[in-house]
Specification:
Layout lengths: L2 H19 L2 E9 H12 L2 E3 L2 H4 L3 E8 L2 H8 L5 E6 L2 E6 L14 E9 L10 E4 L2 E4 L5 E6 L4 E7 L6 E6 L5 E5 L20 E3 L5 E4 L16 H4 L26 E4 L2 E3 L17 E7 L14 E6 L8 E7 L2 E10 L3 E10 L14 H5 L5 E4 L2 E14 L3 E22 L2 E23 L4 E24 L5 E27 L2 E18 L9 E18 L2 E12 L4 E13 L4 E12 L1 E7 L5 E7 L8 E14 L2 E21 L4 E22 L2 E16 L8 E2 L6 E11 L2 E10 L18 E14 L2 E10 L7 E10 L5 E7 L4 E9 L1
Parallel strand pairs: 2-5, 6-12, 15-18, 22-45, 33-36
Antiparallel strand pairs: 1-3, 4-5, 6-9, 7-8, 7-10, 10-11, 13-14, 14-17, 15-16, 17-18, 19-20, 19-46, 20-21, 21-23, 23-24, 24-25, 25-26, 26-27, 27-28, 28-29, 29-30, 30-31, 31-32, 32-35, 33-34, 35-36, 36-37, 37-38, 38-39, 38-40, 40-41, 41-42, 42-43, 43-46, 44-45
């Protein structure tokens, strides 16, 4: 025994000796036993664990002083069907066991099944962490859990969920489901404080390979969160590209545009333009839970080769009407929750921008061109941008069943024009883009018994995009037309899906899950451009998928085996995707995980490059001829360390993708046509978080490399991909001076190639820097919680460029002008949030 262990035992001994020798005074008149124990806990600092429902039914009448706590409990439990024991310094009170005179030939199995819910609204809490009699499990996507034992009919249960107070209670084996309610930590002003009663602030990493679980409720104090954007939280996570500000198309671990998926309530969100961080495609007021799966995910997910952001919408308040309003100098957000017979809820949410997010911005530096030292031939675009969306969701649920219908309708309009004279050329240009996102899902869940759970999801979603672009170039000397270009593109993508899932727990350590789904995809491409671009193409195809997943949980080891099989009848091919992951707790602090899998994608987003290196993207259905099926190989592994208020997580990854498609016309390379290629990305993420004195600080760093090879390359070497960036650093902190909260975050990126199609030494990288700050005052009046404050994005007004959002316009055979869409400028926002 070393000195550290010896001192620990000495401290425990003296602590127990102090409790044992302390006099205990109890005075109660018709007071419940549970309240008496709570008073003793608070007065004498003694830990108790008991079932509140059972002990609250027992009244106590006593006025007496006892020598110690053991004498007190012996007296209080006298003649009652309860007894106690000390477990890790906690007095656990439980029903007396009844002796079984004749042992049965087969051990009796005791089961407990239930659902985790929010106390005030009955909101279901998915993926909650549950410890039952020292065994850890996780609730499913609807908060359900099941546990069985042959040793004891009494279960000590400890439950935690991001953003909620920990619940510690005793339950008994029962044939019916039980509901367990957690209290949100934001019902009190000190919600960021980390203590025995509060869980970690907003994120959970390390239990599954390359997976982060987020609760956006506790991150409301971050800069930009007042601007009604879920993206402000996602961009600060390791592995998600923040430097390019691609809120409409997340780039996760080097994935290409369209390879990652955002799922909301079971339907795919293909993404609106979202040209500013002030607003994004998912409304945070109706958001409950976010799971980020960067790579190596299990067989219950598929249909893409990049990462997955799975967002669960709120179920709504079934107890009382609730109204939320968020307003600032750019955007408006509102949510109404209407309970119906305390069994169901109707939610209606609406958002919109009411000022132009660019032209009505602020400029503290009037002489920006001299400060930025930009090329006079460069043109920075400040477009007109308008956004609005509407959500409606109806949910009804009980202990065994759940039904909801969720609908999203969103639109945005983006356009700009300019007329400028450069190098004896008059350039006149106008561009517009309109997007319309629709999505709807119907979800039915039926819990057949304590072992078998089933669900059916039927969804339909799509995105319609129309892009118009025109420019004319005239000589200022001769007034003759030098060059002219005009195109109009309409691209629509639609997905209809039916998915049936089952989960069957054969043993307490073994669960078998199946997924059956049918998917129909429809794509429309109309392009009036001549040359290589596709014109008047419409495809409508269906395919079918079976997924099987076998989960084995043995104490501190978890093994997940599975595969997906997809049959595409329109090309008569079967695609098999095996998956495997392993997780092991090496100690109470260290956790190790590893995962591997094959992935296919049948609905792809292909790039188009014109002769000047300008990129555009269109959705298409893979036919494995002109548009190949995307095939990817993911290998990820990492470890995590958690102790008290300190966490470290490291993930390494290697991803390769085959079947990339690019429509290209680069005359300087002598190539015109449809090119196919491969891509690969590899690197690692480092993430650390520290909670101190009610405050929190975290840092993440990504080192990565993304490469590609296409058939039009001059040799077999892999070259940098357009999204390649070597370094990205993110730092954030929240300071709790309740009721005032201060926060700041900083993002640095080493930059992308300015002209990635060239791949020459002259192609430079432009670094990205952005500092954001915010201050929030939280107030409570007549049980209504409100917040007000100021948030400033890009405090230093650093010139940053959005990823791929630039265009080169030829002035002559030897010169050109570049147009850039500037990233978020200096943007102060004054906000007010009210909850009724």
């Amino acid at each position: 025994m070393n000195l550290k262990h010896f001192l620990y035992l000495v401290l425990v001994f003296f602590f127990q000796l102090n409790i044992y020798s302390q006099e205990i005074k109890v005075t109660a008149s018709n007071k419940s036993l549970s309240k008496v124990l709570i008073e003793l806990r608070d007065k004498y600092d003694i830990g108790f664990s008991f079932n509140d429902d059972e002990l609250s039914k027992i009244d106590v009448n006593v006025s007496k002083t006892f020598k110690n706590i053991d004498e007190t409990l012996t007296f209080l439990l006298k003649s009652l069907p309860f007894e106690y024991e000390i477990v890790s310094g906690v007095y656990v009170i439980y029903p007396k066991k009844v002796e079984i005179k004749a042992a049965p030939s087969k051990p009796k199995v005791y089961r407990i099944a239930g659902r985790i819910m929010e106390s005030k609204t009955n909101e279901l809490l998915p993926f909650s962490n549950i410890i039952i009699n020292s065994t850890g499990i996780i609730s499913d996507q609807n908060g359900n859990f099941l546990y069985s034992s042959t040793l004891d009919s009494v279960f000590r249960i400890k439950i935690s969920h991001l953003g909620y107070l920990i619940t510690d209670t005793l339950l008994y084996a029962a044939n019916k489901n039980v509901n367990i309610y957690l209290t949100p930590s934001d019902q009190v002003l000190n919600e960021i404080i980390v203590s025995d009663n509060l869980i970690e602030n907003f994120s959970n990493t390390g239990n599954e390979a390359a997976t982060i679980k987020l609760n956006h409720k506790v991150t409301k104090y971050l800069p930009g969160s007042s601007d009604n954007s879920v993206y402000n939280l996602l961009r600060l996570q390791p592995g998600i590209l923040a430097s390019g500000e691609q809120s409409s198309d997340l780039i996760i671990w080097g994935s290409y545009a369209g390879q990652s998926r955002v799922i909301f309530d079971g339907f795919t969100v293909f993404g609106l333009k979202n040209f500013n961080d002030n607003i994004s495609a998912i409304n945070p007021l109706i958001t409950k839970n976010i799971q980020l799966r960067k790579a190596g995910y299990d067989a219950s997910y598929g249909d893409c080769v990049g990462g997955i952001v799975d967002i669960s919408g709120k179920d709504g308040n079934t107890q009382k009407p609730h109204f939320s309003l968020g307003i600032n100098n750019f955007t408006l957000n509102s949510l109404v929750e209407i309970p119906i017979l305390q069994k169901s809820s109707l939610q209606i949410a609406y958002r919109q921008t009411y000022y132009n997010l660019y032209k009505d911005g602020y400029n503290l530096f009037p002489n920006q061109d001299s400060i930025r030292n930009i090329n006079l031939a460069d043109i920075y675009i400040y477009p007109d941008y308008n956004f609005r969306d509407f959500n409606i969701k109806y949910t009804i649920k009980n202990s065994s069943n759940m039904f909801y219908i969720s609908i999203l309708n969103g639109k945005d309009d983006f356009d700009y024009s300019f007329n400028k004279t450069i190098d004896f050329r008059n350039v006149s240009k106008s561009t517009s883009e309109k997007n319309h996102q629709l999505g709807a899902s119907v979800f039915i869940e039926r819990k057949i018994n304590s072992k078998l759970n089933t669900s059916l999801t039927v969804s339909h979603s799509g995105l319609a995009t129309n892009v118009s672009d025109k420019y004319d170039i005239y000589s200022t000397i001769t007034s003759q037309l030098v060059k002219q270009k005009e195109f109009d593109t309409n691209n629509e993508i639609w997905e209809t899906k039916a998915k049936f899932q089952t989960s069957y727990q054969t043993k307490k350590w073994h669960t078998f899950e199946t997924t059956l789904q049918a998917i129909n995809n429809k794509s429309i491409i109309n392009d009036d451009s001549a040359g290589v671009y596709v014109s008047g193409l419409e495809n409508n195809h269906s395919y079918y998928t079976v997924g099987i997943k076998d989960v084995i949980n043995l104490h501190n080891k978890n093994l997940d085996l599975g595969f997906r099989a997809s049959y595409l009848p329109y090309i008569d091919k079967l695609y098999i995707e095996p998956r495997i992951s392993y997780n092991q707790s090496l100690s109470e602090q260290f956790n190790f995980n590893i995962a591997w899998g094959l992935y296919n994608q049948f609905l792809v987003k292909s790039s188009i490059i014109d002769e000047y290196g300008n990129y555009r993207y269109v959705w298409a259905i893979a036919d494995d001829v002109d548009v190949p099926v995307l095939k990817a190989n993911h290998f990820v592994g990492g470890f995590s360390y958690h102790k008290n208020n300190f966490s470290i997580n490291v993930d390494g990854f290697y991803k390769s993708t085959q079947g990339l498609t690019r429509y290209i016309r680069i005359l300087t390379l002598g190539y015109q046509g449809i090119a196919q290629g491969d891509g690969r990305s590899y690197g690692f993420d480092f993430y650390t978080k520290y909670n101190f004195g009610g405050h929190t600080f975290w840092l993440s760093y990504t080192l990565s490399k993304s490469e590609e090879h296409f058939s039009y390359f001059r040799n077999e070497d892999y070259l940098y991909a357009p999204q390649d960036q070597r370094h990205e650093l993110k730092v954030a902190t929240i300071i709790n001076l309740s009721p005032i909260f201060l926060s700041a975050n900083y993002v640095y990126g080493s930059g992308f190639l300015e002209y990635p199609y060239r791949q020459v030494s002259s192609s430079k990288r432009i670094p990205y820097n952005r500092l954001d700050i915010a201050a929030t005052y939280k107030f409570l009046k007549n049980k209504n919680i409100g917040e007000c404050g100021i948030s400033i994005l890009n405090v230093l007004n650093t010139e940053n460029r959005k990823y791929t959002n630039f265009e080169r316009i030829p002035l002559s055979q030897i010169s050109s002008v570049s147009t850039y869409f500037e990233a978020v400028p200096f943007t102060p926002t004054i906000f007010l949030k009210l909850n009724f």
